[in-house]
Design brief:
Blueprint: H1 2-20, H2 22-29, H3 35-54, E1 56-58, H4 62-87, H5 90-97, H6 100-111, H7 118-135, H8 144-167, H9 173-196, H10 205-232, H11 235-241, H12 244-256, H13 263-281, E2 296-298
Antiparallel strand pairs: 1-2
Helix pairs in contact: 1-10, 1-12, 2-10, 3-4, 3-9, 3-10, 4-8, 4-9, 5-7, 5-8, 6-8, 6-11, 7-13, 9-10, 11-13
Length: 299
């Protein structure tokens, strides 16, 4: 079990690290003010491509389970995330999203039988405080709809994370992830058509490269590693790994965009890293159940 954690934790960390580069790629490579287009192109093409290559479809209950998980983890989460990004400064949205590890801890105790430990509660509060120091600006404004969207995004992702742990997976992580990407993309597509519409100008090679990066690495690979980590590690510990994303985002801005980095931000990053290390070095709770195999068919 210990040897499995030695490589599973770093592998799962790759997911939030990749997610942390999303802001840089979005601002530098993608068209402005097209968040739903970015969300849809992150999910649907990659999911369809994997389904076509693997030629595997869900069977039985996994049709509706994939729809539920895809809606929670991809469709609803992306939509709420971008609504919050439109109505709130990034720092406020990130701070609201940092409540997710605490939500997962509570839900895992209720539905998975995990224990709510003092360590996780303290680490959860410290993580929120650390992210606030890292990204929250004194001039940040609050908007009720934006705050509710940010909190809603954290809630749906937390529920999706716990359900993914509870239900296991019926196929290879890449295959089951592709079902969620397709489901989430199909949820996002009508929102894109109604709210934003299709692009009126052709996408540039730089735009296409940005979308390809987000779809292949930032979504297909990242979510495959994330769901595999959920299957093999305590789910609350995995949720704390997500706090690495704002650290990576701020670091990318500092290194590549020459954005200033204050002493308070360094302190916030140190607090977040301490919360992540503490909750993944000690992992109380129920031993992960092996995932159920089978339940798929070739098309």
């Amino acid at each position: 079990m210990l040897s499995n954690r030695l490589w599973m934790v770093p592998a799962t960390m790759v997911a939030p690290i990749l997610w942390g580069t999303t802001y840089l790629v979005t601002t530098q490579f993608l068209p402005a003010d097209r968040p739903l287009l970015a969300a849809t192109l992150r999910a649907l093409p990659a999911g369809l491509l994997i389904v076509l290559l693997t030629r595997r479809l869900p069977r039985g209950a996994w049709w509706w389970k994939s729809l539920v998980l895809g809606t929670l983890n991809i469709g609803a989460f992306f939509a709420l995330l971008f609504l919050a990004a439109y109505r709130l400064p990034g720092g406020v949205a990130a701070t609201m999203g940092a409540v997710q590890p605490l939500l997962v801890t509570v839900l895992a105790a209720r539905f998975l039988g995990d224990r709510v430990t003092g360590l996780r509660v303290v680490a959860g509060v410290a993580g929120i405080f650390g992210v606030a120091l890292l990204v929250l600006q004194a001039t940040a404004r609050l908007d009720l709809v934006g705050v509710l969207a940010a909190l809603g995004g954290a809630v749906v992702m937390a529920v999706g994370t716990v359900l993914a742990k509870r239900w296991g997976r019926p196929a290879h992580p890449l295959v089951s992830t592709s079902w969620q990407l397709v489901a989430g993309g199909l949820v996002l597509l009508p929102l894109l058509l109604v709210v934003e519409g299709l692009p009126t100008e052709p996408l540039t090679p730089v735009n296409l490269a940005g979308y390809a990066y987000l779809a292949v690495l930032g979504t297909a690979l990242a979510y495959t590693l994330w769901f595999r980590g959920i299957e093999n590690l305590p789910v609350a510990s995995v949720a704390f790994l997500g706090l690495l994303s704002p650290i990576v985002a701020v670091t990318c801005g500092w290194v590549l965009l020459r954005q200033p980095l204050s002493l308070g931000q360094l302190l916030g990053a140190a607090i977040v890293l301490a919360a992540v290390v503490a909750t993944n070095a000690v992992s109380p709770g129920r031993r992960p159940k092996p995932a159920r195999r089978g339940g798929v068919r070739r098309r």
